Amino acid sequence: YRRGESQGIVVAGGNGSGNRLDQLSNPQYVFVDRDHSVYVSDWGNHRVMKWVEGAKQGIVVAGDQGQGHGLTQLSHPWGVVVDQLGTVYVADA
C-alpha cells in the first residue's frame, strides 16, 4: 500500500509459488532501496531477488546456484539489506 491508498498492488512475485523469475518460494524479508527497487530474500529458492519499479519479473542478485555454503550459494536466506553503494548483505542460514 502507498500512504493514503486503500488498495495495494503486487510489486514482486504474485504468480504462485515457484522458481521462475516472476515467482517466489517462501519469501522471508523485503527491503526497498532509495530507487524504489524491492529486494526479497527468497528462502525456498536459496536466492535474493530484485524487482525494479514497474518490472514484471525479478533479477537474481545473490544465490540461485543451488542450496549450499559455497561463495555463490545460499542456504535459506532470511534477511537482506542494501547499502547506499548498492552492496547487498544477506543473512543466510
UniProtKB/TrEMBL annotation:
Highest taxon listed in the record's lineage: Eukaryota
InterPro entries in UniProt: 6-blade_b-propeller_TolB-like, NHL_repeat
Cross-referenced Pfam families: NHL (PF01436)
Keywords for this protein: Repeat
Keyword Repeat: yes
Repeat among keywords: yes
Record organism: Didymodactylos carnosus
Name assigned to this protein: NHL repeat-containing protein
